[in-house]
Amino acid sequence: MTQMTAPTAAVLIIGDEILSGRTADTNLNTVARFLAALGIDLREARTVGDREEQIVEALNALRHAHDYVFTTGGIGPTHDDITADCVARAFGVGISEHPTALAILEQRYGHELNAARRRMARIPEGGVLIANPVTDAPGFQVENVFVMAGVPRIMTAMLEDVAPRLRTGAVVHARTLRVSGVGEGAVAATLAEAARANRELSFGSYPFGAGSQGEIGTNLVVRGRDAAAVEAAVAALSERLTAEGVAVALQPA
Amino acid sequence: MTQMTAPTAAVLIIGDEILSGRTADTNLNTVARFLAALGIDLREARTVGDREEQIVEALNALRHAHDYVFTTGGIGPTHDDITADCVARAFGVGISEHPTALAILEQRYGHELNAARRRMARIPEGGVLIANPVTDAPGFQVENVFVMAGVPRIMTAMLEDVAPRLRTGAVVHARTLRVSGVGEGAVAATLAEAARANRELSFGSYPFGAGSQGEIGTNLVVRGRDAAAVEAAVAALSERLTAEGVAVALQPA
């Protein structure tokens, strides 16, 4: 079965600014949508601070549990950018200036390439660079771990260079059935029955408008790698709910 | 020292919709800002899918490692809402209808209280309810774990009922020094020196405008529980950078 062989992935978000509340992470959603389009199953994400022990421990847990790990944050020129050293430690390898990375930084900064900026050329042994078309300083890949910048625009650009390196799976198809006028509790039994009858698909319910004066309802989402099975299940669910007198609208695919 | 006794916390975000990319989580940032205002150190966050093994494992790891755990998601009426059962399993306790929770649901739903909605009254043994002023169906607390809804408006409202139950710490003060016209690499050495001279404080650098045609620069953030130490450090840093010819502006506290 296709879904048995889909690669799995995890995201590791690194940065005190996320945990302090100063910055709202948006990278997780970007990576999630990127992986979904490639048919890769994102199974978990972790957010940790700029702490060596915590980063190394999370990296080792995730890289052994998943086919791919994507990290964001901590690869800039300042003292709190410790991700590269943590990756080297997690893999038990050395870290040194990568000639190509150094050449890229020399090209960009010229005589302004000071010691701090030069730190960005330090790459763990065996690391393969990830292109950064925004500010040049590269990310890198070590085995199944892809180390990317935290700045969303840079991270998003880096994904373009990462994509061709990934084994892809069958894409998950999703269809949404919008239920309006009643809360999700009114359709939960029928939804559960559909889930029991289609165990190879996933059925989610995402309510909207609850508690407000506006329209209430819920979006029922059917997901699976077999597009025909998804279409058949969502059609059956739509028919069943309509027969029960519930207002439903199948959303465009 | 005050910072030695600050409580620590973790967030566990539960829901396939976050990992599939369908929904961008905003709850982590809400909880992070809530905890920062109470002087509680948010140390890590995890995001997992609607999978029992994964939820139980994450819950047990986090509740033993931190003073508090805050979960969001999976407490609604549908078949994929399995958080309450997972919490019971993680703590090794039973789960049954909580009389007060049931009364709340009867009050809200009347004759529309079907079996699916009634599931929301199932609370692990020893659980203390968390009020939900938006849609009534309560969250609950078991020991150091606070179980909240995934819908952001509901979760935010539940935090109001959670706040008085938490031991608070000294609030972390943060001041931002905005550097403009140069990238963070130009000030990294001075920043690192300030960090070495003030090990009880944290110094972060968050660049903006990198690679674009607009103004470039970085926000240097100094954080610590001793407000006077933060003010002194940020003033010294500002003076030092100004002497180096860097344009800086201390942002309002």
Automatic annotation (TrEMBL), chains A, B:
Domain of life: Bacteria
Any Pfam family matching the protein: MoCF_biosynth
InterPro entries named in the record: CinA (IPR050101), FLAD1_M (IPR056596), MoaB/Mog-like_dom_sf (IPR036425), MoaB/Mog_dom (IPR001453)
Gene3D superfamilies on file: MoaB/Mog-like domain (3.40.980.10)
Domain MoaB/Mog, chain residue ranges per copy: 10-169
Stored PANTHER family: NICOTINAMIDE-NUCLEOTIDE AMIDOHYDROLASE PNCC, NMN AMIDOHYDROLASE-LIKE PROTEIN YFAY
The protein's name: Molybdopterin-binding protein
Species this protein is from: Brevundimonas aurifodinae
